[in-house]
Target: VOC family protein
Amino acid sequence: MNAADQYASVRYLVDDVPAAVDFYTRHLGFALNTSPAPAFADVVRGPLRLLLSGPASSGARATPPDAAAPGRNRVHLIVDDLDAEIDRLRAAGVPFRGEPVAGPGGRQVLIADPAGNLVELFQPAG
Model:
């Protein structure tokens, strides 16, 4: 297995690579995997490698114009205490996209990164 096989990778298009790196490393426990450049950086958390592609990156340039806006897809991160995470992130000024929602599987809330990409924080039921 090579290093790339250790991770499941998701690409997020971002407007500002350093701001995205700061958001994911400061607020969500990701670690910087490669030194950020104006066009690209990647961060990791467990088996997830998040590819942060700025406007000049090849990943962003390959995206058709009608699909360039953030979509309804999102990264799903499991947390132990959703209320504590909400309090911590609100105190840090992280923008929320709605209020917490509860269902049979647990509770969740959506936050947005600096480019508007969604991240779901999820606390399983029980």
